[in-house]
Amino acid sequence: HKWVYDFTEGNRELKDLLGGKGANLAEMTNLGLPVPPGFTITTEACQAYLASGTAPAELAEQITAHLTSLERAMGKRLGDPSDPLLVSVRSGAKFSMPGMMETVLNVGLNDASVTGLAAQAGGNERFAWDSYRRLIQMFGKTVCEVPGEEFEHALDGAKRAKGTTNDLDLDAADLRALVDTYKTIFRKHTGRDFPQTPREQLDLAIFAVFGSWNAERAVLYRRQERIPADLGTAVNVVAMVFGNLGPDSGTGVAFTRDPASGAQGIYGDYLANAQGEDVVAGIRSTVPLQELEKLDPRSYGELLGIMARLEEHYLDLCDIEFTIERGKLWMLQTRVGKRTAAAAFVIAGQLVDEGLIDLDEALHRVNGAQLAQLMFPRFRLEHDVAPLAAGIGASPGAAVGKVVFSAERAVELAGEGESVILVRRETSPDDLPGMIAAQGILTSRGGKTSHAAVVARGMGKTCVCGADALDVNVRSRQFTVDGQTVREGEVVSIDGTTGRIYRGEVPVSPSEVVRYFEGSLDATESGDPLVQAVHRIMAHADERRRLRVRTNADTGEDAARARRFGAEGIGLCRTEHMFLGDRRELVERLILARTDADRQEALAALLPLQRNDFVEIFREMDGQPVTVRLIDPPLHEFLPPLEELAVNVAVAQERGQDAAKEEALLTAVRRMHEQNPMLGLRGVRLGLVIPGLFAMQVRAIVEAAVACARDGQVARPEIMVPLVGAVQELETVRTEAEKIIAEVVGDSGVEVLVGTMIEVPRAALTAGQIAEAAEFFSFGTNDLTQMGWGFSRDDVEGAFFWRYLELGIFGISPFESIDRDGVGRLVRIATEEGRAARPGLKIGVCGEHGGDPESVHFFHEVGLDYVSCSPFRVPVARLEAGRAAI
Ligand code: PEP
Ligand code: MG
């Protein structure tokens, strides 16, 4: 089995096997770009190692073979005392997990080769000792779990002794002494000396990178990003090139376009005389990449050429990492870069304009989650409110919350339901839980490529970074800026687009994209590249999609908004929502009525109210289908709470008051009380038990439709029966409904369909029978999930889903995204058998899943006719339905 690939053997298609970094290093190698030679150990080797605890048998041999050819290519041997080859050992999974896994640089250095390295570098002893101390530090921390702070304290101590804060002021002797201190720390924690054999260093580093796949923060990141837990990481062993050889060396990162806005240009950070992770970690302040033009015009020119070449090759925004070693440029990484939601749309549009991709591809490159983000509200500043400070807008959004200074505190307060803004000088992977818990992230250091910025963008979380006017004091839990002090618990507002930070709470207003969808902003006139890109891509999605998109709406107002958002009808109007508020008493009277007369009275009072509701909705949806579901309340929602009532009665009796009415009510409520209301008298069951209820609703619906028709409008009612499990239930309701329909419709020309929800597993499994009596199906995936799994939808998410997610029993709550294998199977069966019994049967979905991007793809695959979701998710569903069709 082949476990190791040379860079010349791979290509970008092999991400599964070589990880993103390895595949792209191979791709760049094959493009003839200056990549240091190296090889990649596959993700399969990692999987095998993690499964069995030992490396696969042939791995060592294959590493030896590749190392030998690497040595040959470089003309040096690993750790050779007189002229050592050094290598970096870098993680690289299929999906980028910035900073989550490990990397060890300078492998091959030891007490002897450090001298050889100095000689190799023209007698640069400082460089050699600096490289050695970095190796011990990284190796100690990563491979042997030596607490990183110990090394950091020692480094700080050395700087303090020298009276400096800049590590560049430490000379060769200082660093040599520091190496001794580091070795002592290493020995203290590991009980052994720092390994001097280069090959042992290499092997241990490789296994440590394998192991870092399961580091806590990596596990957490994967869960957040929904990256499967079993992929494993590849390991790249690359010949070292040095950015810390002096002022003519350095290291940097760059984007071929602005990852925040999508604007074209040169974006990046450069740090002279520095190695590897210094830039990303924000250890020292970087300079904008443009400055490199002055420092090293030749490398700068070459870099720009390579960036253009990469864009042309990948047909997309690329981000890169590079190092300059004494004026020679080396490419250390590239990948299709992460970007903000806005940039994704803008760049996709630009690439279409540039003729590099077509509209299908543009549609493929954006997604519903990004669109949802663009619909977030923005800050509304009534007058010129002076910001407290400004940093770099690293990830857009408007976040308001209480300031906290540690991940722990963020998690704690968020757990109490507070919104928090996590403020740090810079973040590290250890801050991840706090970043997840926070509403927004604010740092005083680091640029657009800092850890905070990269991770926040990935999570779609608002982030302002590099606000260097802020003096953040984590220990005293406060920051000062411009003479003002902001303490833990005070509220700030941060704008991830402009980078501005405000004291107190700034009100928010709808985003441009929402204003565009609502029709108050014209795409062509606005001149806003984002709105124009959204307009164009949405139009293409609409052209491509086969699924129709309806909305769940119970009021005229919601219906109107959804229609502006592009809804093509209503897929679910929950009539029980129309019985709340003032009308609740009428329903209560109806449910508890003991005599026919009482019941008739309650129904007669409800009828006109219902009719008006429907008129309003039909008007807004003129010409579009409107699915009205007959009442489906869990009974307890309409009855006074039993305990409260019992207490009231007891109190009244105690006081000798006349409580006859309350007592009667209490008796009735007791009679109707249910242990499991969700599995009780609801939906069609209630309709069959309470005479006249469904009939009243059917009459109200049809009368409203006829009234609209008389006004010249087209009302297309679809009457839907909830919670059906057996065809007989539906038939009973239908027979009664048809009589009323025939009577009310008369010669108005109104067409009324009668159909059913499929939300009880039995209905899905007997869909063939049910279809005989139904003119349409609509999947109620909320109840289908509830009853399919036996999970109470109101209780379980907070109770134990965290554990299920942790154990990987599911990757996401099945109430959020359809469980394809189980509940999805019921959907498939019902669709197939329903259509077999009634060809052309119209089928949709109206559970929450109708607006979930992943689920929309599933419903497209199954062949449903439409999805229905809340008004705000209509654009997301349109986009995803388009994406599903290409
Ligand atoms: C469903 O069960 O998916 C559904 C749409 O109905 P409700 O959420 O009202 O129970
Ligand atoms: Mg339901």
UniProtKB/TrEMBL annotation:
InterPro entries: ATP_grasp_subdomain_1 (IPR013815), PEP-util_enz_mobile_dom (IPR008279), PEP_util_AS (IPR018274), PEP_util_C (IPR000121), Phosphohistidine_dom_sf (IPR036637), PPDK_AMP/ATP-bd (IPR002192), Pyruvate_phosphate_dikinase (IPR010121), Pyrv/PenolPyrv_kinase-like_dom (IPR015813). Keywords: ATP-binding, Kinase, Magnesium, Metal-binding, Nucleotide-binding, Pyruvate, Transferase. Its cofactor is Mg(2+). Mg(2+) binds at residues 759, 783. The active site is at residues 451, 846. The keyword Acetylation does not apply. Residues 16-56, 57-285, 294-342 form the Pyruvate phosphate dikinase AMP/ATP-binding domain. Its EC number is 2.7.9.1. The keyword rRNA processing does not apply. It is an enzyme of class 2 (transferase). Residues 533-882 form the PEP-utilising enzyme C-terminal domain. One of its GO terms (molecular function) is pyruvate, phosphate dikinase activity. Substrate binds at residues 574, 629, 759, 780-783. It catalyses: pyruvate + phosphate + ATP = phosphoenolpyruvate + AMP + diphosphate + H(+). Residues 418-499 form the PEP-utilising enzyme mobile domain. Belongs to the PEP-utilizing enzyme family. PANTHER family: PHOSPHOENOLPYRUVATE DIKINASE-RELATED, PYRUVATE, PHOSPHATE DIKINASE 1, CHLOROPLASTIC. This is Pyruvate, phosphate dikinase. It comes from Micromonospora pisi.
